[in-house]
Structure formats: structure tokens, C-alpha cells
User: Fold phosphoenolpyruvate--glycerone phosphotransferase from Liquorilactobacillus cacaonum DSM 21116.
Amino acid sequence: MKKEYGIVIVSHVPEVAQGIPKLLEQVAKNVSITFAGGTDDNEIGTSANKIMEAFESNEAKKLLAFYDLGSAKMNLELAMEMSEKKVNLYDTALVEGAYTAATLLEADVLLKDIEQQLEALKIK
Assistant:
């Protein structure tokens, strides 16, 4: 059974976006993890459409979103406005933040406690 919260990974590089969930699935088999990588033409960049697809295909109703670079954040924020799902966006180191969140979600740690752990990984 999947958890209440899922994770969405957004990267400018399609291969990075695909690879991080492979890592996370090793420690969080019951957490729904989806990704969006590259532009609509699979070039370097991000796509609000791909992000929306990642939101919608995620089995969870509430999402924790992680991204690599600033323009990905802009597309994430745009997709968040269009989505009916509750999305929490984190300005953390991508791999470390997503890995921390995934392991803690798998262990049924409360969101407020996960966010406290993520604070140390925040990019300032």
C-alpha cells in the first residue's frame, strides 16, 4: 500500500530525473515517486506540462517536490497552481533532500518532522 505523501523529482536533465527515483525506491518501496526531466522536446530544461504529468501520475494525494535549478522552481510553481493536489516545494539539495524525505516517509515520520530534517539541507 502506498503512503499518503508522494515525491516528485524535477531536473533539467532527463537522465538525472529518471535516476533519482531508482535510488529512492531502494529505501522507500511504499512511497510513490514520479519525475519530470527535460523540456517537452527532451532537451536540457524543464516543462510545466511534464511536471503536471508527474503530479497526476503520482499515486499520492499530497506531494513533496524537489528540483535542481531555479527555472525548475518556476515551472514547479506554475504546475502547483494548476494542480488539485497539495504540493510542498523544498529548496534543498536535490538528491540529499529527496533521499531524506523518502526514507522518513517510508518510516511514517510526520511531515513537520520531515521538514525539520530538511531544514539542514536547505540551499540559502
Notes: The CA atoms of residues 39 and 46 lie 5 Å apart. Helices lie at 14-24, 48-57, 70-82, 94-106, 111-119. The first helix runs from residue 14 to 24. The mean pLDDT is 96.
